[in-house]
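Quick board copy: two proteins, each given as sequence then C-alpha cells.
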Amino acid sequence: MLKFMKNKILIPCLIIGALAAVVSFRYSGQGSHSSEDKRKLVLQSVMETIKSGHFSPKALDDTFSSRVYKMIVREFDYEKLFFTRQDMKMISSYEFKLDDEIAANSIEFFDSLDAVFLRRLKGVQQLDSEILKKPFTFDGNEVFQENYDKQEYARDDNELPAKWHDFIKLQVLVRYVDLKKDQEKKRENKDSVNAKFKTDAELEVDAREGARKYIDRFLNFYKKQKDDDRFAEYINAITETEDPHTNYFPPADKSDFDVTMSGAFVGIGARLSPENDKVTVSSIIIGSPSWKQGELKEKDEITKVAQGDDQPVDVGGYELNDVVKLIRGPKGTIVKLTVKRADGSTKVIPIKRDVIEIEETYAKSAVIKSKDGPIGYIYLPEFYADFNHTSGRNCSTDIAVEVKKLKEAGVTGIILDLRNNGGGSLGDVVDMAGLFTGKGPVVQVKSNHAAPAVLPAQPADGILYTGPMAIMVNEGSASASEIMAAAMQDYKRAVIIGSTTYGKGTVQKMVDLDQFVDPMTRLRMTNDTAGSMGKSLGSVKLTMEKFYRVNGGSTQMKGVTPDITIPDARDAYDEEDQGERHNKSALPWDVIPPANYKVTNSVGNLQQLAALSKSRIANNETFKLIQENSEYFKKKRDENVVSLNEKRYRKDQEEINEKSKKMEELQKKAVLLDITNTPADEEKLADNAKKFNDTTAISKNKDWLKNVSKDIYISEVVNVINDLKKSGVTLNMDSGKKD
C-alpha cells in the first residue's frame, strides 16, 4: 500500500489541557466492548481533536469527502489489481457522502470498502496460482502501465484475470531476463567449458518460481494485515486530508515513532533480518546487552520469544516487525530467546533489556584537507532528541561537541550537511542556530488566531564558531532542517547550497487520545479482557502551528531556495515528485511581520560565489551527466510504460544501464577528497577497539569516510568555502538582538 512521506515532528512547548477540557465530555455513554465501538470512538476522538486543536481545520464538505475517498481507495489498491470497475461503481457512491458520514460518526464506508477488498483478496489468491501454472512467452506487443493515474481498473470479474496476467508476466519477465544475463556472462567466462547451462524453457520455469515467491509475499502482506491496521489507514486518509503531517498513530506505531525521534530504544541490541520466512540475527551491536551476554550469535534463527518466566511464543511465520515488538520491552526486564544454531542445535538465551543507541542516527564530523586549508564536515541525519529522558542525547549538544573537535583540529571553514534530513526537535534547532549566530531570534511560531511568538537562541557560552560556513540542502531537507537553513540565510551567516528544500513549515504536537476519554469508558477499556475494545485509542500527530523565518516569510510550500544551486541526482531516480508543493492538502504559504534581528554579514558577495560555482558545475562532466539523466528519467517516469516483449524490455534496460555505467565511470575518474577523522575521534576509535576487542566500528568509520570522499557535491561545497574565505568579508558577530 502507498506510504506517503512522513517528515519528523516538531515539538512545540504547548499546553493542551484546554483541548482535553473541550473534547473529553464527548465520550460518555459508550456501553459495549465491540471493535466497532472502539473504531467509532477513535474516529470521534480524532475529529474532535482536529476540530479543537488543528491550526486550520478544513470544512467537512464534498471536496473534503472526495479527497478522503480518493486517498483511501488508492491506499487500498495502489496497483489497481484488486478492485474492478463494478466494485468502484458501488464504492464510488460514497465519494461525496463521507463528510456527512464522518459528522455522524459512522464507519459504514470503511466497512463496505474493507468487505470488498477482503473478498477480492481471497479471489486473487486462487487466480495467481492458476496463472503461474502455464509458461509465458515474451514475443508479443503487450505493455504494462505502472503509472497509477493512467491505469484502468479491470472492467469486471471476467477481465480481472487478464489484469493479473500482465502484472505477473512482468514479474516473470524481469527475473527471466536477469537469469539469462547471468548465464550469458558465465558463457563468456574461460572456465565455462564444463559448466552446465539451462535452456530458455528451464530458465522460464525458474523465473516463474521466483515470481511465485514474490507474489506470495505480496499477498501475504495483505493477508496478515489486521482489520485495525486497515482502519488506521482509513483514519490516516482523513487526517492527511487535513494536511500531510497530521497523522494517526495506533499504540504500537507511537512507540516506533519515539524510537525514530530519540535515536535510542530499549531492547537487546541484535539486528534481525527476514530470511526465507525465518527471522535470523544479522549482527550484534557492540556494547549492547546481547554483546555483553555473549551467547547470541550471527545467523542464529529465533524460533521462540518469552517474556521472563512466561510461556514462550512460537514466532514461526511471524513478520519481522512482530518479532521485534516481542523482543523489545521495559528496561531491566528479561526476554528469553529460543534460537536454532547453524549446526541444528537449540538454546534458550536470557537477555536483560537495556537502552540501545543507534549510532547511525547521531551527528559525526571529519576533516577535509583542501589546498586552502582544512575544512570541517559535519553530517547530521536528523534533529534527534529524547523527549522521554532528560539525560538522553540531543543533536544541538552533539553538534557543539563536533564543532569543538573541528576547531581543535584547526579547520578554516565548516560544512553542515542537512541533505535528506527530515527534521525533528524544534528546541534543538533553535539552540543549534545559536552556536553560530549567538543570541537572537531563530524562528517565529504562530498558532491559529494568535500573535506570532519569537523563539530566540540563548547560548550560555555565546557564539561557538564564527568562521566561514556552508549548509548543504536538497529536496529531502525538511522541517527543522529548513528552519536552520532559513535562519542562517536570513542572518547571512552561511551560504546555503544545493536544491530547493521540501517546504514543510508546520509544527506538530503528539496528542494522546486516551486523555480525552471519560473515566468510565477508560475503565472499560482497561478492564477489557476480551481485547475487542483495546487498552488504548492511540495518538494523533496534530498540526497546531506554523513556523516562519525571522524575515517573516514562511518555508511552507516554497521551502528554502539555496544561494547556490547544484543539480540534484535525486531528481533522476525519485519515483514521485517530492515536496509539500505537490500535495493538494498542504497548508498555504503566507507572510507575517519580520522579527527584530541583525544580519551578521558573514557571507561575502553571493552573486560572485554563485557565478564561480556555476562555472565550475557547467564544466564538470559528472554534473552535466546528472542533469542529462535527470531529464531522461523524468521523461521515462512520465511515460511509465514497461514493454512485456523481451527484446524491447532488454533494449530499454540496456539504455538505462548504459547511463548508469557512464556515471560510474565518471565517478571513478573524479579526484577523491582527502578526508580524515578528527584527532579526538581517532583516539576514541582506537580506545574502543582496545576496550571491546572489536574492529567493527573502525570498519564502519572507514566506509563512511570513503563514501564522503567520493561525494562530488561536497567537493563543490569545499570550493565554495574556499572562495568565501578569499572574499575578505568583515564579520559582524555581535548580532541578533532579542525581541
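And the next:
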Amino acid sequence: MSLKRVNAVVVGAGAGGGVVAKELSEAGLSVVLLERGGWPNFEAHDHDELISQRVTVLGNAFGPDDRRHRRVVSNGNGGWRVVVPSDGAYNNNAACVGSGTVSYGAMAWRFMEKDFKLRTTYRSVAGSTLEDWPITYQDLAPFYEKAEWEIGVAGETGADPFAAPRRQPYPMPPFPHNQEGLVLEKAAQELGLHPFPIPMLRNSVPYRGRPACIKCRYCVGFACEVNAKCGTHNTVIPAALATGNCQVRTESVVSEVVIDDRGRACGVRYFDAENRLQYQTADLVVVSASATETARLLLNSQSKLFPNGAGNRHDWVGRNLQGHAYTGAFGLFEEDRYDDVGAGATIAICDYNHGNPGMVGGGMLANEFIRLPYLFSGIRPPGAASWGRDHKEFQRKYFRRCVRVVGPVQEMPVFEARVEVDPVVKDDWGIPVARISGSRHPNDIEVGNFLAAKAEAWLKKAGAFQTWQTGAGRGVSGGQHQAGTCRMGNDPKTSVTNPHGQVHDIDNLFIADGSLHVTNGGFNPALTIMALGYWVSDYIKRGWKGSRFRS
C-alpha cells in the first residue's frame, strides 16, 4: 500500500529539522518528519554515567547502536578502518527525536558579525577554501531572536561587549555563577578581560509550560529529568504535532532522495521500524540529518541527471567538513572549587575570538561542564599515574579541586576534509556508509595552542598551583559540532546550495542543518543551526505555491 503524498518530508528531527517541521506545518503544509532513532526517554537511561553520550567509548545513550550502524575512517596511513558509533572516530551525533539537543550542554551562541565575513576580514588563507557566507549576521539576526524566544534561552543582555547587536533581550535571566565562575570572574577582570554568564538553552525560570533547571550535575550527555533543557523534542516538534499537519515517524532510516528525470525531488525512500522499504512522495524535501549524514544521503541519491549524487554536479557535496578542536587548560587548586551546581559551565570570555596577531579567527573560552567521576579518571597532569594507588589518591583529592577552561577553535575549511560514501562497506540496511577523511588546517593548531595558553594564564591568575594545556590534533574534525559539507553560496561551482539552503539545480530540495555553514564560528553551533532552520523555512513559506513549488 502506497503512502499518501505530503507537501514536505523532512529528514532528521534535530536542531534544524525540528524547526522546519514546526514552521511548515504551522504554515498549513502537510509534513512528515522522519527520524532514524526513537523518542528520547529519560527513564531508559537515567543517570547511568557508563552509557552517557559524553563517555563515547562506553556507548551512546541516544544511539545510533553499534550493531546496525558503522562508518569508515582514514587511519592516517593511506588505509581505512571500520568504526561504530561508540568509537570516537565515528564523529557521532545522537540518533533520536531532538538529536543532539537532547543531550547537549545547551550553550546558546550567536555567531559574531565577523564570523560571516572571514574572507573579507582576513583575506585568503593558503590551503583553505575560506569564503564569506552569502548571508550576513544582520540577515540571520531576526531568526536568532526567534529561536531564542520560541525554544528558550537564558542570558544576560549586553554582558558580552564583543557580541553582535541585538534587537530584543534574552527571554530568561542568566544563570548565576557557581564557585568556579566566581573565582574565574575575578581573575578575568584582573587580567583586563571581559567575563560574562554563558547564554544557555536551559530554563533559568519556568518558561512556556516547562519548569526551571534544577542544576543537577548530570546534563551533558543526558536527557533532562525535569524537562528544563530546551531542545527541539520538547518545544518546536510538539508545536508541529499540535497543528495536526505533522507526522513524526521514528526508527525510519532514509536511504535515498528520489530525483526524477526532470531534476526534481519526488520524495524519499526509507526503511521503517519493521525494516520495510517505504517510498514517501512529497512536493519538496528538506534534509537536516547532520553534516555527515546529510552529505552521505545526497551522495547516495544518484540519478540520471546527478550520477554522482544529488546536488553534486561540481563535487562539493561532502567537502569542507569542519567541527571544533577544543583546546584549553586544566588547573589544580589547594581548596575545593566544585560545589555540585550543574551544569557546571557558567562563565565565558570572547576577548580572543578575533584580532589575534598573525592568526585567522579564534574562539571563546569558558569553564567546562561537570565531569563525572568516570570521565575525571582519565584527566591527569602529564606524567601522573594512570592506575594504582597514586591514581586513586589523585581521584580522591582533586575531583573537587580541578577546574578546566576550554573553547572551540574556529576551524579553516579544507577541501580535502570530507565525507564520501564507501564503495564496499554498507550498514545493516544495505546502504553505503559514510567514509571520512582529511585533516585540520595548520592555522587551527596555531589558534588552538594560542587559546590553550590564554586558558592556562587565566587559571593561574585564579590561583591554580599546577596547570597543563590540552591542544588540538591534526586529524579530521567533525564530532558533535560537525558542519560545512553542503555549504551555501552564490556560485553553484563552489557551493551546494543557494543562500537559502536550496540545492543548486534542484529547486524543491533544501538543506537545513550545519552542513550549510561556510565557516563554523568559534562557538557551539546549535543556536545557529536553529536560526538557519527558521531562515530556510521562511524562504520556503514565501515561495510556496502548492505542489508545483518553484524558487
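Board note added afterward: The chain has twelve helices and 17 strands.
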